[in-house]
Design brief:
This protein is mainly alpha-helical and 33 residues long. The chain is built from 1 helix and no strands. The longest helix has 31 residues. The model has no long low-confidence stretch (mean pLDDT 80).
């Protein structure tokens, strides 16, 4: 049970990291235009 919770926590963190990087990229692009 604990392992599954840890796995999901890591997965959520990875998704958050991806999303934040995506939004940062979008902001950079919008600054250019």
């Amino acid at each position: 049970m604990k392992l599954i919770q840890i796995y999901f926590a890591c997965a959520q963190y990875d998704i958050f990291d991806l999303v934040s990087r995506d939004t940062l990229h979008v902001f950079e692009v919008s600054k250019i235009f």
